[in-house]
Write a structure and sequence with these properties.
This protein is α/β, with parallel strands linked by helices. It folds into 2 domains: about 1-10 and about 350-405, no CATH class; about 25-335, Spore Coat Polysaccharide Biosynthesis Protein SpsA, Chain A, CATH 3.90.550.10. Helices cover about 25% and strands about 20% of the residues. The strands form 4 sheets. Strands 5-4-3-6-13 form a 5-stranded mixed beta sheet, sandwiched between helices. Strands 7, 8, 9, 12 and 14 form a 5-stranded mixed beta sheet that branches. Helix 3 links the parallel strand 3 and strand 4. It is globular, with a radius of gyration of 21 Å.
Length: about 425
């Protein structure tokens, strides 16, 4: 398709990510969305993100790790409203954001998730977000069969007076399609995707929404912190908060991160300002609902998990948008030890027990769909790294090709 796009296209365009005049840094003056009071501490284990250490050989711990992929035995000891350490750069406290920010629908996809990690995700969003900016939290159940995610969940969320909603799939759809289902149900201006085992940090929301208010075609991505799967300790992943890493990929389409370029660093007046990134990890981000809809949400032909971050990243950049990583928005995330559940009709097997098995089963076909639709002649480099992909069919991509033409998207070379 590269021949359909002119040489030098977009050469005189200004890339998304220029400074927002509505967002103002005031040295020494606490930002307008900064909390006015200290975090309340419950007196329970794990406050301020401290680790909770137990014998990992306890039968209860072993059962929890096997069933959920992380230590829910410890998670149950920790308050759903626990305090977290403020891991942001000091500069972040002095940004003043527009009051008329777009509203957000937070979409959380889950399948057989542990109770306390899922509910702590919900509680942290409600606890650390300006209420008028949260239109709703949509919990999308991808055909769970655990009892605590049925009537108990429906009864529990009634306390939130309609702010928290549950949408249930009638059959297993996989992460990618289920996210699109959640976005379709969203009524907020912006859709924010979180995984089902997260904790948002101090003043996480306005920094994500402000760039989208300035440019509706920008996707924003928070800094992802780590929550330990064994102890539930909350900590930075990237060391010092003032070191910034952008998402990149190598030709085998494996996600990597590297420090931002000197050019990008010089472009910004303050080190805490958002910076451009070619791609993102895929799990946590914000995007305007209408823009996501115009982009066709995720490609519905992508199976279960894998490659969706490239499909969306390429689509955004090539079709007139951009991706910004936001240093002043932090979200903690628990990484599992293994994938603890199967995929029903999607897998062809009763259980896919490891993340590696999941990737190898779906990765190649998903990637071939992405490169056939978006990468033009550059797809040849992927086949060098993954020669077996040459024999994989992408399936019917006519709708994706038509979308690219309809949106007048640029070439991959651009």
């Amino acid at each position: 398709m590269a021949e359909n796009y002119a040489e030098g296209e977009g050469a005189n365009e200004e890339l998304p990510g220029v400074a927002d005049p509505g967002t103002v840094f005031k040295e020494g003056e606490l930002g307008n969305f900064e909390p006015k009071e200290e975090q309340q501490r419950s007196g329970e284990h794990g406050e301020m993100g401290e680790p909770v250490n137990v014998d990992l050989d306890l039968p209860e711990v072993r059962r929890a790790m096997n069933e959920f992929g992380f230590n829910t035995y410890v998670s149950e000891m920790i308050s759903l409203n626990r305090s977290v350490p403020d891991v942001r750069m000091e500069e972040c406290k002095y940004w003043h954001y527009p009051e008329d920010l777009p509203t957000a629908s937070v979409v959380i996809v889950f399948h057989n998730e542990g109770w306390s990690p899922l509910m702590r995700t919900v509680h942290s969003v409600l606890l650390r977000s300006p209420p008028y900016l949260i239109k709703e939290i949509i919990l999308v159940d991808d055909f769970s069969d655990k009892g605590h995610l049925k009537d108990r969940l429906d009864k529990y969320i009634k306390q939130f007076n309609g702010k928290v909603k549950v949408v249930r799939n009638s059959e297993r759809e996989g992460l990618i399609r289920t996210r699109s289902i959640g976005a379709e149900h969203a009524s907020g201006d912006v859709v924010i995707f979180l995984d089902a085992h997260c904790e948002v940090n101090i003043n996480w929301l306005p920094p994500l929404l402000a760039p989208i208010r300035h440019n509706r075609k920008v996707m924003t991505v928070p800094v992802i912190d780590g929550i330990d799967m064994h102890t539930w300790a909350y900590r930075r992943v990237y060391g010092s908060a003032d070191r910034h890493f952008r998402g990149i990929f190598e030709w085998g389409l494996l996600y990597k991160e590297t420090e931002i370029t000197k050019e990008e660093a010089r472009r910004r007046k303050y080190n805490s300002q958002p910076f451009r990134s070619p791609t993102h990890a895929g799990g946590l981000f914000a995007i305007e609902k209408k823009w996501f809809e115009e982009l066709g949400y995720y490609d519905p032909g992508l199976q279960i998990w894998g490659g969706e971050q490239y499909e969306l990243s390429f689509k955004i950049w090539q079709c007139g948008g951009g991706i910004l990583f936001v240093p002043c928005s932090h979200v903690g995330h628990v990484y599992r030890s293994h994938m603890p559940y199967g995929f029903g009709k999607l897998s062809g097997k009763p259980v896919i027990s490891t993340l590696y098995s999941l990737i190898r089963r779906n990765f190649l076909q998903n990637m071939v769909r992405v490169i056939k639709t978006w990468m033009d002649g550059y797809g040849k480099y992927y086949y060098i790294r993954e020669p077996s992909a040459k024999h994989r069919s992408p399936g019917d991509i006519s709708a994706q090709v038509a979308l690219r033409e309809r949106l007048h998207c640029k070439s991959f070379k651009w």
